[in-house]
Specification:
With 165 residues, the protein is an alpha+beta fold. The protein is 22% helix and 41% strand. The chain has three helices and six strands, in the order βββαβββαα. Strands 1, 2, 3, 4, 5 and 6 form a six-stranded mixed sheet that branches. The N and C termini lie far apart (48 Å). About 3% of the residues have low confidence.
């Protein structure tokens, strides 16, 4: 079985009604596969930005790069959240099974405008947007990423408690 090692980020910023998180809607057959809910509406696919670790790159560097490339936002790493592991079948080419590990990091917003990404990145990302961190675990499509969001929420609550907020 093939293996892929990736890294990604949960990039947050304080918003008017609490923490917000940057998410992407992938530009793939999965986001336009005709799936719809019980009322016939197309299902929205929301995910966290992530990608393969380049040769010579550390996972944390990959997380920062992938978040910037896929959302238009730069952030600084606060902490590593978790590694998620799963198997998927490639939807292109050889349809091989792939064992994937993704290291996720919690990042704090530094600069940039959401969804200002290069035209090349539009092949991968339909759009990037901010959503409320509270409840984000119900909006993300992938189970492992929903668990990572819960860890981010817990981590931020601890940080705020320690800071006396």
């Amino acid at each position: 079985m093939l293996r892929e090692i990736s890294a990604g980020g949960v990039l947050v910023r304080p918003g008017p009604e609490g923490w917000e998180v940057a998410v992407i809607e992938p530009q793939s057959e999965n986001s336009d596969d005709g799936k719809s809910d019980k009322k016939g509406h197309k299902k929205e696919v929301l995910a966290l930005p992530k990608g393969l670790i380049d040769a010579g790159e550390k996972p944390a560097e990959t997380a920062i790069r992938e978040v910037r490339e896929e959302t238009g936002i730069t952030g600084k790493i606060l902490t590593k959240l978790s590694d998620i592991k799963y198997v998927y079948v490639r939807s292109w080419g050889d349809r091989q099974k792939v064992f994937k590990i993704v290291s996720f990091y919690l990042l704090l917003y530094e600069a940039g405008t959401i969804d200002e990404i290069s035209p090349d990145m539009r092949i991968e990302v339909r759009r990037a947007c901010w959503i409320a961190l509270e409840g984000a675990e119900r909006r993300l499509t992938y189970r492992g990423e929903r668990e990572v969001i819960r860890l981010a929420q817990e981590t931020l609550r601890k940080v705020e408690k320690e800071a006396g907020h």
